[in-house]
Recover the amino acids of this structure.
């Protein structure tokens, strides 16, 4: 079923992303090492006045900040190849470890938002297309267009203010209750803390998929094959199920995979608003506090993450759409 | 079997400043087909052929307004009857394989026209009849060759036990062999008692199989004649446009007429052909001629004999 040209295609994609990652390494290293933030100062923080010049030099030496950029880049490159990606200055553990931990927390958040927004958006798109031109359609369209231009952090703050502060239904941020030992945190605690950020992400996440599904289904409903199906006596819900869903499901799923970058971007903001201890929050911390190895690690990781989404979207299309599934003809 | 009387179809269009305008694309159209007969509808692009087919099947777009009556089996073909009959007694053969769902295997698409009984078995039997082997069942439309696609579409019309078949341009851009094969299938179905409305813009195709030919011009029927009248220099034809069509064929004088047909007729502007007609007189410009019987045929022209 799957033939060599398919593997060749995947291989090409992987080679392409490898070269992309390489370029990304150079560019981000260059940008970060030219940033106006002095890593030593950011590392020491508010205690700066009490730290003497000698101590500063020691700190710089400890983290290798005194070496020339080229040497630092090579050292960093070596750690990438080793797999630990260097040591995070703020968490004082290997960058790969930090990313893994943080990403697992983010994964729960993004996963929930991803599935929720996918299903809701898909259904909204179908309803809008079926009622094309009606007030329901107009509301869904208006909602989606408005949301598409609503900043995530603004929406997050709004939800926080109304649902947590005013009504007290949800905790005001963090991933787990404050002051509770790690072993005593229950699943219910975690769920309780994840609902609001996930909701924030989902509410904005439906816009894209809803609009896309709506347009796709409208096109399908105007297509020749729907006309022919009607001429053959098919109608109503059965017609939608047989020919409509079949033709809009695949583009919707692939769009969802291809939109991981927006999801990731959104989660950086949402995690910041809700102080949710995920990868997004770590990104902001690393940036603000000049944690060069961590920041670079996250840049590489997120690029890989987004690329995987796109690759999966491509693969699904190739495997599922009979028109692209080469070598499967008689 | 099927009778269309005074059919008019118009569309409402919104112009600048929300002004509404109705455009009548089919006006006062009459045709009639009996059992075992193939009536070909000939007309150039935009003359309203497809809309006629869609009106018979009840699949006109929402913004279309229709008036006039369609009788099927002697009784009015209401929306309710259309819904009940289409797909089985009244079948549609579309123009191309693009009318099949691109993501659905053709076998199961054809089975959807079977209303009762062993669906799979019936579909297989029809496929056998059109020499489509069992591998065809699980092919997707894009995998069909031109000839196979035609046969699948014909099979799909026949599988429901059609008595009236509306075929809209069933042979565009096909290999002459495939064209002849498809037309042969239609002739065979007619000989078994089907009534067939064959829509085409190619008068050659029509002459090959049809019993009579209705010529469309700007949404009206200008002439209905038995095929036998299309002979010689077109002396037995009635309407100047039909004669011109006939004489424009390569095997005849190959002598096309100048000008274009208007896309729809303007009310009170007379015969739509008048700008291209050499027999034009003053009444031709003021009032649309009525359709009338002339020598076993019908014509809409003041000066036809
Ligand atoms: N939905 C619509 N709204 C407005 N006008 C329409 C619509 N559908 C068709 N028309 C008009 O009706 C006229 C007849 O269209 P129709 O498709 O029946 O032509 P046709 O004879 O089948 O042409 P062809 O040979 O190109 O298939 C055209 O002039 C077209 O512009
Ligand atoms: S009615 Fe007049 S203009 Fe029209 S075809 Fe006949 S002669 Fe020509
Ligand atoms: Mg047409």
């Amino acid at each position: 079923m799957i033939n060599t040209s398919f593997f060749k295609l995947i291989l090409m994609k992987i080679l392409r992303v490898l070269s992309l990652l390489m370029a990304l390494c150079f560019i981000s290293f260059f940008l970060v090492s030219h940033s106006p933030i002095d890593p030593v100062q950011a590392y020491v923080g508010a205690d700066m006045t009490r730290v003497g010049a000698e101590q500063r030099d020691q700190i710089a030496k400890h983290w290798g900040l005194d070496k020339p950029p080229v040497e630092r880049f090579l050292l960093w490159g070596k750690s990438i190849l080793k797999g630990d990606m260097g040591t995070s200055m703020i968490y004082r553990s290997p960058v790969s470890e930090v990313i893994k931990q943080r990403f697992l927390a983010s994964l729960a958040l993004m996963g929930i938002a991803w599935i929720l927004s996918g299903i809701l958006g898909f259904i909204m798109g179908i309803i809008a297309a079926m009622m094309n031109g009606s007030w329901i359609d107009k509301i869904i369209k208006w909602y989606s267009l408005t949301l598409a231009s609503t900043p995530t952090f603004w929406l997050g703050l709004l939800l926080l203010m109304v649902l947590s502060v005013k009504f007290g239904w949800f905790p005001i941020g963090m991933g787990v209750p404050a002051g509770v030992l790690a072993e005593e945190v229950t699943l219910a605690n975690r769920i309780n803390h994840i609902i609001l950020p996930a909701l924030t992400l989902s509410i904005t996440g439906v816009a894209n998929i809803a609009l896309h599904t709506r347009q796709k289904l409208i096109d399908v409903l105007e297509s020749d094959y729907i006309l022919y199906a009607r001429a053959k006596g098919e109608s109503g819900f059965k017609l939608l199920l047989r020919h409509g869903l079949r033709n809009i499901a695949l583009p919707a799923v692939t769009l969802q995979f291809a939109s991981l970058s927006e999801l990731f971007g959104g989660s950086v903001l949402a995690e910041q608003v809700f102080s949710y201890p995920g990868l997004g929050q770590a990104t902001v911390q690393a940036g603000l506090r000049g944690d060069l190895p961590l920041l670079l690690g996250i840049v590489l990781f997120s690029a890989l993450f987004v690329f995987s989404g796109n690759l999966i979207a491509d693969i699904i299309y190739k495997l599922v759409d009979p028109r692209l599934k080469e070598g499967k003809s008689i | 079997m099927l009778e269309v009387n005074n059919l008019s179809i118009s569309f409402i269009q919104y112009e600048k400043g929300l002004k509404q305008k109705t455009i009548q694309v089919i006006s006062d159209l009459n045709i009639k087909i009996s059992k075992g007969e193939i009536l070909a509808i000939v007309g150039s692009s935009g003359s309203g052929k497809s809309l006629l087919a869609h009106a018979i099947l009840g699949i006109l777009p929402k913004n279309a307004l229709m008036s006039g009556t369609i009788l099927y089996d002697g009784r009015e073909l209401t929306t309710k009857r259309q819904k009940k009959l289409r797909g089985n007694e009244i079948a549609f053969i579309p123009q191309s394989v693009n009318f099949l769902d691109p993501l659905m295997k053709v076998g199961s698409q054809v089975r959807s026209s079977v209303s009762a009984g062993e669906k799979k078995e019936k579909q297989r039997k029809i496929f056998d009849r059109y020499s489509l082997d069992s591998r065809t069942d699980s092919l997707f439309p894009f995998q069909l060759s031109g000839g196979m696609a035609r046969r699948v579409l014909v099979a799909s019309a026949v599988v429901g036990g059609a008595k009236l078949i509306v075929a809209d341009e069933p042979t565009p851009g096909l290999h002459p062999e495939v064209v002849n094969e498809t037309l042969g299938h239609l002739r065979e179905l007619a000989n078994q008692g089907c009534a067939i409305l064959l829509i085409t813009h190619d008068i050659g195709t029509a002459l090959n199989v049809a019993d009579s030919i209705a010529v469309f011009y700007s949404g009206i029927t200008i002439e209905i004649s038995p095929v036998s009248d299309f002979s010689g220099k077109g002396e037995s034809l009635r309407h100047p446009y039909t004669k011109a069509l006939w004489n424009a064929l390569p095997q005849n004088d190959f002598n096309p007429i100048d000008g274009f047909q208007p896309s729809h007729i303007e009310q009170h502007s007379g015969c739509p052909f008048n700008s291209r007609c050499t027999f034009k007189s003053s009444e031709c410009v003021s009032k649309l001629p009525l359709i009338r019987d002339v020598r076993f045929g019908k014509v809409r022209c003041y000066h036809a004999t």
Summary: Residues B 49-50, 168-169 surround magnesium ion (ligand 3) (CB under 6 Å).
